[in-house]
């Protein structure tokens, strides 16, 4: 099977939604010029990550941001994982959602963040996503022709059973838009992404925003791409950049044959049954 070139657009997020969409468009174009056929945007790429203002950025589907994503996917003939945006459903609930479009501009799936970031680290960070977002409850596998993948969102990656479920359902890659804080990112970002790659023998694409020193919530950055052996094959810094890597889909099968973890996973034991 042919290799697949992928890209992360690590973009700085501003207050103006139109500016964020413009920046995303520019970085998508840059990624495509460098050969990327699957492009990933960061978590909450169209709005500042502030719980007090996120509701004002929420969109129903289809809306300005998803129409933008659809257009770019079709225009460039790429698979486009639209990071995440605040999505409002028909009942008025708001979710932290990822919209995935194929190379024809067709919507292939929506993933809503299942595990919400509600934390209080003394003298470091207090943040409650549940003040704004409802939690999703379903994980899906996107049938990419070269490498089927699932999307997890940021805090989801701290729950290994959620990633394992994606792998058991057929995912060979996890795409994780993730805006880690400076504290948690420094100590845990790379560790978690490599662990999820090794646990499930999958590629991991972790897409962070770039750090904005003027933002109230400062992100870690350092987007990365990890192979199914747990090796970091591409990594960014804290600023704006496009991170690229070429993936060999056959490597997933090779490693899973050598170490058949998924076949040996005793699911009933995990569920508390014997």
How would you sum up this structure, described in words?
Helix 1 runs parallel beside helix 2. The protein has one domain (4-270): Carbon-nitrogen hydrolase (Nitrilase/N-carbamoyl-D-aminoacid amidohydrolase, 4-Layer Sandwich), CATH 3.60.110. It has helices at residues 17-33, 64-76, 160-168, 182-200, 250-258, 261-264, 267-270; strands spanning 4-10, 38-40, 79-81, 85-88, 94-101, 107-112, 118-121, 125-128, 149-151, 173-177, 203-207, 224-226, 232-235, 241-247. The chain has 274 residues and is an alpha/beta fold. A hairpin with a 5-residue loop joins strand 4 (85-88) and strand 5 (94-101). The termini are far apart. 27% of the residues lie in helices and 24% in strands. The longest helix has 19 residues, at 182-200. Strands 1, 2, 3, 4, 5, 6 and 14 form a 7-stranded mixed beta sheet that branches. Keywords: Hydrolase. Residues 4-249 form the CN hydrolase domain. GO terms for molecular function: omega-amidase activity.
Average residue pLDDT: 96
CATH architecture identity: 4-Layer Sandwich
Number of strands: 14
What is the CA-CA span between the terminal residues?
A: 39 Å
- The top level CATH class name: Alpha Beta
| CATH topology call | Nitrilase/N-carbamoyl-D-aminoacid amidohydrolase
Shape: globular
The radius of gyration is 17 Å
Task: Label the structural class.
Answer: alpha/beta
Low-confidence sequence ranges:
none
Compute the number of structural domains. 1
Number of separate helices = 7
Classify the helix fraction into a percent range: 25-40%
Mind summarizing the main beta sheet? 7 strands, mixed
CATH homologous superfamily classification: Carbon-nitrogen hydrolase
- The SSE string, one letter per element, is EHEHEEEEEEEHEHEEEEHHH
